[in-house]
TrEMBL record:
Family: Belongs to the cytochrome P450 family.
Iron recorded as keyword: yes
PANTHER family listed in its UniProt record: CYTOCHROME P450, P450, PUTATIVE (EUROFUNG)-RELATED-RELATED
Species whose genome carries this gene: Clathrospora elynae
Taxonomic superkingdom: Eukaryota
Cofactor dependency: heme
Residue stretches in coiled coil: none
Swiss-Prot/TrEMBL keywords: Heme, Iron, Metal-binding, Monooxygenase, Oxidoreductase
Statement: the UniProt record of this protein carries the keyword Oxidoreductase: yes
Annotated GO MF terms: heme binding; iron ion binding; monooxygenase activity; oxidoreductase activity, acting on paired donors, with incorporation or reduction of molecular oxygen
Positions annotated to bind heme: 420
Name of the featured protein: Cytochrome P450
Length: 491
């Protein structure tokens, strides 16, 4: 069976490695360069695996939405799905009965109406993060906001998943959980492990370092998150009051839903991995970008002073009244999507597209870097310019449902039936943090320590390399308002 889309020749002349050597760093950029030469859909090989790279919204819609019944599978991979998630992780699960069950259970906590119920938690964590930043950056002390964003996103997910939170960035759970997420991102990108694309006999016969790393990560998930579920289970058995959370829900329905300990651990891990590093990454890129763009910052301050004033913090209800602040978030997502290559979909049967066959088992990668930088849609696509979104009042989920996919705001949350179920909670968390940081601080670059806005950390998930900035409260009373809000809304 032949795929007749264009293809970079080198990929097919190196029979063992395919394109792998060319995709080790910043693969989205190489893939974008090839898109310019080979068009909006082309094929590459990695080891013995055929990939189709999609770089156009219309093609993405045709395959992954219109033909979502065919393009919603995932590839079983040695490292991610078999070694780390042992066949149970919702993100890596095949498109089957087990995936449907896990997705349904995840939705109990992630659907829009559920997020309304715990918005007070998100609200509190955002204020707590800004307050901690305010205290730790006093008198012009240089500060790296990254661990603060990491802990805020972590607390939100820990509260939703286990009914638990940490009280400062030095809590051991913060270090442990953030290290697990980072390691997961680095070992599981769509093109991270050539071993996943070798024949099975090669995979079995080689003592791969990545496999050891995968086993270590699996044990880490069992100990860290499996341990927390056991703890919730024990407290429930002892009749101790346990706050509503995913763990409690799963324990309550486990017989009726036939969930075993591994199912529960891996579903909780999906929340802790999928929902922490990603959301934190957007908050971190925001903190890295804003000090380098003082005029954008001034415009946001003007909008906040006009609509919210200086006597209270911006809230969820203010979001529709603050289009410029909202545009900043969309533009951060466009310029710095945490996963340029998302999570790949797989064809579960042969499919003919424009006369070419995409064979069953082909991995379909959406290169969102190309979609987010298409010069036909975006003027000066490399520029950070929130004004491009000023008339876009839709949330990311509403935008993702637009019939005309060429007008979608961004592709950060993926597409089709596997689209991120955490997008409602993520958008809300990011709004609360970003609008409140803008409200509270003037943010400055440190001339001798310029923030690197190009390099990024990680193979699959990207966040900025460590940086420091200066945060100056915008007016007297910021600290008091934050402290007052914290004591009023204690969760
Ligand atoms: C800015 C934050 C986030 C980004 C950029 C993000 C991105 C993504 C992407 C690209 C996918 C794959 C979509 C596809 O296959 O087309 C995904 C899936 C997923 N995300 Fe998120 N995510 C974020 C936040 C969250 C949060 C807060 C949660 C909460 C638990 C979450 C849970 C999940 C889960 C469980 C899946 C697997 C869905 C499936 O395979 O059916 N994500 N996410």
């Amino acid at each position: 069976m032949r795929v007749v889309f264009g293809r970079p020749r080198k990929c097919f002349t190196n029979f063992i490695l395919g394109c792998f050597p060319m995709l080790r760093t910043y693969p989205e950029l190489t893939l974008d360069k090839w898109a310019q030469k080979y068009g909006p859909i082309y094929s590459v090989s990695l080891g013995n695996q055929l990939f189709v790279i999609v770089s156009d919204p219309g093609v993405a819609k045709e395959l992954m939405i219109t033909n979502g019944a065919i393009f919603s599978d995932r590839k079983p991979t040695l490292i991610k799905s078999e070694t780390i998630l042992v066949g149970r992780g919702i993100t890596a699960n095949r498109y089957d009965h087990q995936w449907r069950k896990h997705r349904r259970i995840a939705a109990i906590w992630l659907k829009q109406q559920s997020v309304e119920r715990y918005t007070d938690t998100l609200d509190y964590e955002a204020t707590d993060m800004i307050y901690q930043l305010c205290m730790d950056s006093k008198n012009g002390r240089h500060i790296n906001p990254q661990p603060y964003a990491g802990r805020c996103a972590l607390n939100n997910m820990a509260k939703i998943t286990f009914g638990f939170r940490t009280d400062n960035i030095y809590h051991p759970f913060v270090k442990q959980a953030l290290a697990l997420s980072r390691e997961f991102m680095n070992t599981t990108g769509p093109m991270s492990n050539l071993v996943d694309f070798m024949p099975r006999w090669v995979q079995k016969s080689l003592p791969w370092k990545m496999k050891r790393c995968g086993k270590r990560l699996h044990t880490g998930l069992l100990e860290t998150y499996g341990g927390r579920i056991k703890d919730v289970e024990m407290r429930l058995k002892e009749g101790v009051q346990v706050q509503d959370c995913l763990a409690k829900t799963m324990i309550t329905i486990k017989d009726e839903e036939k969930l075993d300990d591994l199912d529960m651990t891996m579903l909780a891990s999906a929340f802790m991995i999928g929902g922490v590093e990603t959301t934190a990454s957007v908050m971190q890129w925001f903190s890295a970008l804003i000090p380098a763009h003082p005029s954008i910052q001034r415009k946001a301050h003007e909008e906040l002073d006009r609509i919210v004033g200086r006597n209270r913090l911006p809230t969820i209800q203010d979001e529709v009244k603050l289009p410029y602040c909202r545009s900043i978030i969309k533009e951060v997502a466009r310029c710095h999507n945490p996963f340029w290559l998302g999570t790949s979909h797989v064809a579960s049967e042969d499919f003919v597209y424009k006369g070419a066959t995409i064979p069953k088992g082909t991995v379909v990668v959406l290169n969102t870097w190309s979609l987010h930088h298409d010069p036909k849609r975006w003027i000066e696509p490399l520029e950070f310019n929130p004004d491009r979104y000023i008339n876009d009042n839709d949330s990311a989920s509403t935008s993702a449902r637009r019939p005309d996919v060429y007008t979608r705001d961004h592709w950060m949350f993926g597409i089709g039936r596997r689209m991120c179920p955490g997008m409602f909670v993520a958008e809300r968390e990011i709004w609360l943090v970003v609008s409140r940081m803008l409200w509270a601080f003037e943010m400055f670059e440190i001339p001798e320590k310029p923030v690197d806005l190009k390099e990024y950390d990680g193979m699959s998930g990207q966040s900025p390399v460590p940086f420091e900035i200066v945060l100056r409260p915008r007016f007297e009373g910021v600290e008091e308002i934050l402290a007052g809000e914290l004591s009023r809304t204690q969760v």
